[in-house]
Amino acid sequence: MSSETINEYGFTAVSRDPDVLLSGKKNIKAPSPILVKDIPFPQTALALQVQAHAQKELPPKVYNHSMRVFYYGQAIAREQFPEWKYSAETYALTCLLHDIGATPQNLRATLLSFEFWGGIYALDLIEKELKAPKEQGEAVAEAIIRHQDIGTSGKITTLGQILQLATIFDNIGSHEDLVHQETIRDVTSHFPRNKWSSCFAETINEEKSLKPWAHTTALGEEDFPNGVLNNKLMEPYD
């Protein structure tokens, strides 16, 4: 695979451990206020097609979460990891589809854990239906499948790591020093949480009930949903 492809689709390998990436510090750079207007959402035909698909298929709370993840991730990457390479379009596709497997209908459509089913769904949508490059579909699928693969050993793609950092920031308030409070206020004003913490905790417990083997349990059968419910960082905005 060419270096251009690696860079375009965020396939560069980085540590799976955020503490390693941050050199054991709270952040590399103190975050500044980055607002929604400062982060252009890609206006490519592909990004807009997937956005329309997400708006149709996702419940409003899940869609808003997906958009918050896009803006938080871009803010984190811009200030903490400016050298990381991936296209905004590819990251947008990843954010919009990362929880497609967690909708009430799709949780019941498969015995697979929601992230795994979601990655396969995204690959089929992007590559087969929308005729995007195979490597782009694979980058999105890899990141979605691994977006709850939180840990400290081994490597992950840059695309996958930004997705992980942004999702756990929105879901449990992890690494709160990576994003400025003004950024949180602005992003949540554009894409309200609307009790997202309780909504997502319910989804976690619903998947556990339907699929006791689900990969989500690797994050802690009780610790993870409790961490979502007790997200103190986002409590003022919920």
Task: Describe the overall structure.
- By secondary structure, the protein is mainly α.
- 56% of the residues lie in helices and 3% in strands.
- It contains 12 helices and 2 strands.
- It has helices at 3-8, 18-21, 45-57, 60-80, 88-97, 104-107, 114-129, 134-145, 158-172, 181-190, 196-210, 223-229; strands spanning 13-15, 155-157.
- Helix 5 packs across helix 8 (134-145) and helix 7 runs antiparallel to helix 8 (134-145).
- It starts with a helix and ends in a 9-residue tail after the last helix.
- The mean pLDDT is 97.
Keywords:
globular; mainly alpha; 12 helices; single chain
Give the overall silhouette. globular
Distance N terminus to C terminus? 43 Å
Strand order of the largest sheet: 1-2
Number of strands: 2
Protein structure class: mainly alpha
Unreliable segments (pLDDT under 50, ≥5 consecutive)? none
Q: How much of the polypeptide forms β-strand, as a percent range?
A: under 5%
Helix content: 55-70%
Number of helices: 12
**Helix and strand element order:** HEHHHHHHHEHHHH
Largest sheet properties: 2 strands, antiparallel
State mean pLDDT (0 to 100 scale).
97
Indicate the radius of gyration in whole angstroms.
Answer: 16 Å
